[in-house]
Amino acid sequence: MANFELTRELIEEIRWLIDQKDEALLSDILKDMHPADIAEIYEELSIEEAKFLYFLLDDDTAADVLIELEEDDRLRFLKALPSEVIARRFIGRMDSDDAADVIAELDEDRQKEVLSYLEDISMAGDIVDLLNYDEDTAGSLMAKELIKVKESWNIVTCLRSMRRQVEEVDDVYFVYVVDNDGVLKGTLSLKKMLLSSTDTLVRDIYNPDVIAVSADVHSEEVTNIMDKYDLVVLPVIDSIGRLVGRITIDDVVDYMREEAEKDYQLASGITEDVEASDSVWRHTRARIPWLMIGLAGGLLGSRVISAFEGNISEHPEVAFFMPLIAAMGGNVGIQSSAIMVQSIASGGLGFDTNFKKLLKEVSIALLNASALAALAFIYNFAIGSHFALTFTVASAMFSVVMFASLFGTFLPLLLNRMKIDPALATGPFITTLNDISGMFVYLILAAYFFEVFL
Amino acid sequence: MANFELTRELIEEIRWLIDQKDEALLSDILKDMHPADIAEIYEELSIEEAKFLYFLLDDDTAADVLIELEEDDRLRFLKALPSEVIARRFIGRMDSDDAADVIAELDEDRQKEVLSYLEDISMAGDIVDLLNYDEDTAGSLMAKELIKVKESWNIVTCLRSMRRQVEEVDDVYFVYVVDNDGVLKGTLSLKKMLLSSTDTLVRDIYNPDVIAVSADVHSEEVTNIMDKYDLVVLPVIDSIGRLVGRITIDDVVDYMREEAEKDYQLASGITEDVEASDSVWRHTRARIPWLMIGLAGGLLGSRVISAFEGNISEHPEVAFFMPLIAAMGGNVGIQSSAIMVQSIASGGLGFDTNFKKLLKEVSIALLNASALAALAFIYNFAIGSHFALTFTVASAMFSVVMFASLFGTFLPLLLNRMKIDPALATGPFITTLNDISGMFVYLILAAYFFEVFL
Fold it and tell me: Considering only residues 286 to 345 of chain B, which have any Cβ-Cβ distance to chain A shorter than 8 Å?
């Protein structure tokens, strides 16, 4: 019952025991471990060590561990095994959703081979069904295993049928009620079953208020629905309302976590899903694309600035505030776009018309821009900068903050309408664009004010 | 069974019906709605309209809607109600965890008043217990309602006791098994109960492999445990192992979502939890603090640059690349810190020693820095910049990328060790710091190379 914590000592011990081929002691160590913990140990081992350990596990545990591995490790591991072993020892012992996920990672020839070795034909059929759903839809998240009863049955018939059905299902959260055509009618709670007499009919006690999604609904909407209604399981129906599967919260939690990490990384300029433990090469590959965009943007910016060379040479004080103006444009742009990206993702845009949204964003931008411009003005006034510089910095600050706010707000909306992930707008892209345009506005204003005042 | 979508038309209709005081039609509209949907409608109404609608709901629905409201709206609503109504109509009908959450939002005098009006003394006691746990611990997330049976009972006794217990619990996911002292021993699955004969003893069929947490464990660890082991419910025990409550996945999903949003917003320079639908004033307040830091940083940067005024006046081309170098420092710093922040949050730091981490980060930084410096060098060479500028830009690029990578990696680790949220390190803070130090390094190098070459 104690919680497991992976220690370096344990890993050292296990590697040593593998080296000694001490199967008895290793089996003993693994016996009481949770598959998720064994998966953590696996990720610290070489492929040869992992294979040795794998064949000490009983079949159900082996299948569970395989599901818990990171995708890269799982693929490496499966590559080293014949299709028949994959089918019999692993896929055949998984829930249909996990089985479909694992098979989807294999290449097509291998998929067919593995499926052909499955002994349970109806399971193979389920997997093929699941593979047909588009990625990121309810169909791709769901499992086929569930417990259903007919509305015309009584409690005794239900219990008899459920006894048979539970052998295939790990956790029973809900019993679904369907009509003779398999159309979902509602749910039957354990509570109601416990509180009713055995000859009560299902149709008299089931709860018809059930929230369901169609198999082609996007995963993001599935997440929002389960989150909003605090659901643990969500039934999935086909286009004519027949119950085809159910999505459990753990799959949705995984999806949520991945999406949140992806958005966070995009906002930080990382283009690939990486973790601290990944290889140096993978880290470099994930980071360099955006650094290249930044470099290109900065070099383009240097061309913009070079157009004002004479001005800078004559008034080098103009250069003092260049990084400030560039940075403020980037900062304001990121803030505005981050809020839009989150609102789009959570479906919380509200009912404001585009005009109202514009009006609101203009108000926020005006407040921020005025405050920052005023401070920049006061600062330059206080340190005794001449009027031309003071006016340049303050008016550039105002323009840049206004522009970046509006741009940061509407770019995500535009991308979203064009069906491009709006998270792309935060971070890299918007910062660079605002940097360059900010520089340009600043130097134009400087040219003007220095002309007027000096 | 259809899914609900809030439309502007529906809201207009409801407002009109409220205006007409058409209680019959309104009740009819609300009757089949999910509390979460009603809560969405509420947030579009004025406080007077909301109150009118509220008293048309039956008590259980009213309590559920209250839980679903955003905190601000809930507080505004509760302020307008007497303590007795809050206790009888709302708190008394909630699960203990929701009740404690709502009460915790009230000020202390009001808390006592509401608790004194509760008719169910044992519930009041449960709420007081829950209020005593620190925020962000397992204790603060858990509910007291659960179903437990003793290991010495047989199935018949279990069922009899469960029939009584389920009246207080909404959803039954697990039946917990305890000994005579209330110490958690394991779980009893519905599956096992269905498959065993009625005189079987609990002790012979329960599953002793149950993962539990102590009430003082941090919420982040709770999240990681439930995520890792794919749990829907997690039992909570006290220091001597007695079962005191259970945490359900929906509470953890809410916590996860909030944390992910907080990290994302921090990384984007937003200091308060805001949504697109919040007021202009709240948006400004959430954004301005970091803009002030950015402004202060930029002004400090302008002082650094002004120390090199003579150099810039003589060689204005030095200014062309200032924004590029500043931006690269910021970009690289954000990337490195974002990866560390995520690794710390997910507990996935691995077993590398600090020395190994340093070595790895140095390798990644070296690759990125060399590539970027080489490109900057080639660019300047290609456009025919003189050697002094070419060397300055390339060597500054190299230094800034190296420094920002290492700083971005180790600042989050340092903050984490000092028990400060490492997410603070991404975004604002690190960008500004890297901007300024990058400027300084660049101008020092410029001074040196222009001295050497010209």
Answer: 287-288, 290-292, 294-295, 297-299, 301-303, 305-306, 309-310, 312-314, 316-317, 319-328, 330-332, 334-335, 337-340, 342-343
Contacts of B265 in chain A (CB under 8 A): 338, 342
Please indicate, yes or no, if residue A333 is contained in any of the structural domains: yes
Domain of residue B153, residue span: 147-249
Q: In which band, very low, low, confident or very high, does the pLDDT at A434 lie, cut at 50, 70 and 90? A: confident
Mean pLDDT of B235-251: 91
Q: Residue B351: its pLDDT value, please?
A: 55
Pairwise CA distance, residues B193 & A176, whole Å: 19
Is residue A142 in a domain? no
- Which 82-111 residues of chain A touch chain B by CB within 8 A? none
pLDDT at position A443: 92
Of A332, A220, A335, A283, the C-alpha closest to B338 is: A283
What DSSP letter does each residue of A375-415 carry, written as one string?
Answer: HHHHHHHHTT--HHHHHHHHHHHHHHHHHHHHHHHHHHHHH
Query: CA–CA separation, A232 vs A225, rounded Å?
Result: 11
Residue B302 lies in a domain: yes
Choosing among A1, A401, A429, which should be mutated to test the B contact, i.e. which has the most B CBs within 10 A?
A1
Residue B268 confidence class, pLDDT cut points 50, 70, 90: confident
DSSP string, B54-90: HTTS-HHHHHHHHHHS-HHHHHHHHHTS-HHHIIIII
User: What interface predicted TM-score (ipTM) does this complex get?
Assistant: 0.74
Q: Which of B256, B275, B428 sits opposite A256 (nearest CB)?
A: B256
| Both structure tokens of B51 | 């109150």
- The reply to whether A440 falls in a domain is yes
User: Smallest CA–CA separation between A136 and chain B, in Å?
Assistant: 19
Query: Given CB atoms, is A364 within the 8 Å cutoff of chain B?
Result: yes
Contacts of the segment A26-29: beta carbons below 8 A, 24+ positions apart? A26/A53, A26/A56, A27/A56
Distance of alpha carbon A265 from alpha carbon A258, whole angstroms: 10
Nearest to A107 by CA among A142, A83, A133: A83
Annotate B325-391 with DSSP letters as a single string. HHHHHHHHHHHHHHHHHHHHHTT--TT--HHHHHHHHHHHHHHHHHHHHHHHHHHHHHTT--HHHHH
Spatial separation of the C-alpha atoms in residues B408 and B402, rounded to whole Å: 10
CATH assignment at residue B298 = 1.10.357.20
Number of domain units in chain A: 3
Which DSSP category does A11 fall into?
H
- CATH number for the domain that contains residue A128: 1.25.60.10
Indicate whether B172 and B114 sit together in one domain.
no
Residue A390 has pLDDT above 90, yes or no: yes
Cα A341 from Cα A347, distance rounded (Å): 10
